[in-house]
Amino acid sequence: FLTDLFLTTSPNSKTIQFETWVNKDGNFSKVGKSKEMPSGAKVVGQSVFADFDGDGQSEHLLPVCEDETCQRSAIYLTKLGLDQVM
Fold it and tell me: Which residue ranges does UniProt annotate as crossing the membrane (predicted)?
């Protein structure tokens, strides 16, 4: 029941990245590389974490808008430790 840490960072004004840090006995360790926001995303929504596929691990769900007025939107799903986006 230890809490992990998920950070949304912005190294510059045009880039958004995501970092996952796992709590192992009170020490945080970064998991993998920072992930860039999906290409084509203009607006990034609120991250949601849940076990969507029932495998016992939480996935990261990210809603985005592909234009400034949010007329075109998408939902991205990623698994911890994988670079694949669904």
Answer: none
